[in-house]
Amino acid sequence: MITLGQALNRGLRAAMTRDPRVVVMGEDIGRLGGVFRVTSGLQQEFGADRVMDTPLAESGIVGTAIGLALRGYRPVCEIQFDGFVYPAFDQIVSQLAKMRARSAGRLALPVVIRIPGSGGIGAVEHHSESNEAYFVHTAGLRVVTCATPADGYTMIQQAVTGDDPVIFYEPKCRYWDKAEVDEDAPLAAAPALHAARTVRAGRDLTVLTYGSMVRPALVAAQIAHEEGRSVEVVDLRSLAPLDLPAVLSSVRRTRRAVVVHEAPTTLGLGAELSALLTEHCYLEMEAPVLRVGGYNIPYPPARAEERYLPDADRILEAVDASLAY
Amino acid sequence: MIQLLAPDGTLRADPRFPLDVTPALCRDLHRDMFLARRFDQEALALQRQGELGLWLMALGQEAAQVGSIRAVAAHDHVFPSYREHAAALCRGISPAEILAQWRGVAHSGWDPARYRFHIYSLVLGAQALHATGYAVGVRLDGAQEVVLAYFGDGASSQGDVNEALNWAVVARAPIVFFCQNNQWAISTGTAQQMGTPVHVRAAGFGLDTYFVDGNDVLAVHAVTAQAADRVRAGGPPVLIEAFTYRIAGHSTSDDPRIYRSEAEVDLWRERDPVARLTTLLRAEGWADEEHFEQLDREARKLAEETRAACLSLPDPTLEETFRHTFAQEPPLLRQEREAMSAYQAGFTDGADR
């Protein structure tokens, strides 16, 4: 049994072993091994040229990673916390995302940006944000997130292997979750990076969720089960692109959907999924798509986050409302 | 300020940069600048006639660009800003490849790998970080290359440029930053842009620095060659501030008479980079009348070719942008592209779009 943090570490090690062009860079990721120790031991193993402690400058991290990628390297950057990604916003949105299109397909930027995201660990301000919608909105970026150690291990390797830039969210409240990870399974046998996964089968309603919210969704589904309701839980894993066939396949069967994420609901993944479901299976639905998300306020102080974050009870409220519709 | 060729066309001795100029080098640099200026004028005409959406003249900055790019090796990678047309031409990039962006048929018209010349960056200063990261890769590769990164006085206020200068020193990046201080960031002069000159700030970051007359192609060439040699030999990164002047407006959308005096522009016209080298070539007898007449003919031919190539640039399709958004096109995007194509195709059957 290993934690998500350890699984990501081993996935990075496997990626670096496989391809000498993979380099890891970020603030405090070398000697310290990162504030969450995800890169622990990598600098000792691969050296300071491949595991680079950088100056404290997020735009610089992404901007120089772009330059390294132009030179033929495959950089994996760490942004120390979600709320620190904004200084790099131009480099991500105007440079990283668009370089392929701006160069008429002549330039590829295989850069992975790891972001410990979302809240739930009692952190100070700017350390608990769910800002994925900004990047999902930007053409040219892949945005993924893992919810389990097994996914962390495979998805980080798949992200590094691809030729498109990837924003890789790691739910920091899940870093210490433990599970079995089969490190010997061939990467090619793993589900595709863009594929969603049904993590609990059900008949009456589909909960569409990802990252930190997969666990409370599963708790809610178990409680619903004990109350005689069969709730399916789909872990989207990839937020851009969305695995729409998987989503439609589930919702067409259950005919009801609740989207759960930590991010504020306005123009979030829930809004997008609601629109897609309306466009694709309006007449097959028994109830409107409901959203359970963060409130539309700045992330609150730590001692109020328990009431801000969606939990099993709030998810069940939405499940009940949908089923009663 | 380092100067080897005065505005009146006379050579100045500088003990740091022995005058080893040859007639051939002077003729070559002069030719590059002369042709770049003719290209620039033709592009302006094309914009005024509605054939380009926008044009940003390099007029007055030819020495800074030609002198610097000719001083690095052909395999040294270059990261331009967006006004480096003279440098681009020196790298062999064609007029059509340069104009494609300004005609609106592409976001960039050339293959950066082929010319070792990255695409233009319109978000100011962003390329300074790309160049720095690229240079770190050069060091990791153990390659004997130097990276040349251009930016301007306005961009020197950007965080990205300041991050890049610091980063380059910390990461021992083999890079030469070349700041063309043309004294105007659209309508904002250097007095409103900075309290301390760029080369002085760069020294504070730990770079080796040079302050050079940007309208003196011989000085720019000598300084850049020395800087590139030192970086290639393992020295610290370098910043060169070339003091020059933007004779035209920022772009064809700009009327510089609103914010600066004609007298100021006239002063800089007297310091013209091409004229002073012409004077030297004539005075030293390094080029005869036949040489200049031949150059005129060459420039006319370049202008004609530029015009013809511009007018024959094919319009882009939306399909191309779809296809270049991802390496592997996501299914939803493919569906959207196919729907768009089908919709567009509906207009082609005799219908007027």
Main sheet overview of chain A: 7 strands, mixed
CATH superfamily of the largest domain in chain A: Thiamin diphosphate (ThDP)-binding fold, Pyr/PP domains
Contiguous runs where pLDDT drops below 50 for at least 5 residues of chain A: none
The CATH homologous superfamily of the largest domain in chain B is termed Thiamin diphosphate (ThDP)-binding fold, Pyr/PP domains
Provide the helix percentage of chain B: 40-55%
CATH class of the largest domain in chain B: Alpha Beta
Intertermini distance of chain A: 42 Å
**Based on the structure, what is the oligomeric state of the protein chains?**
heterodimer
**Distinct helical segment count of chain A:** 12
Task: Kindly list the characteristics that best describe this protein.
heterodimer, A: 325 residues, alpha/beta, Rossmann fold, 2 domains, seven-stranded mixed beta sheet, five-stranded mixed beta sheet, 12 helices, 36% helix, B: 353 residues, five-stranded parallel beta sheet, two-stranded antiparallel ribbon, 9% strand, Transketolase-like_Pyr-bd (chain A), Transketolase_C (chain A), thiamine pyrophosphate (chain A)
Give a brief rundown of this model.
The complex is a heterodimer of chains A (325) and B (353). Chain A is α/β, with parallel strands linked by helices.
In words, what does this structure look like?
The complex is a heterodimer of chains A (325) and B (353). Chain A contains twelve helices and 14 strands. With 325 residues, chain A is of the alpha/beta class. Chain A folds into two domains: 2-189, Rossmann fold (3-Layer(aba) Sandwich), CATH 3.40.50.970; 197-324, Rossmann fold (3-Layer(aba) Sandwich), CATH 3.40.50. A seven-stranded mixed sheet of chain A has the order 3-2-4-5-7-6-12, with helices on both faces. In chain A, strands 9-11-10-13-14 form a five-stranded mixed sheet, with helices on both faces. The N and C termini of chain A lie far apart (42 Å). Chain B contains 15 helices and seven strands. In chain B, helix 2 packs parallel to helix 10 (217-232), helix 4 packs across helix 13 and helix 6 packs parallel to helix 7. The longest helix of chain B is centred in the first third of the chain and has 26 residues, at 23-48. The model of chain B has no long low-confidence stretch (mean pLDDT 96).
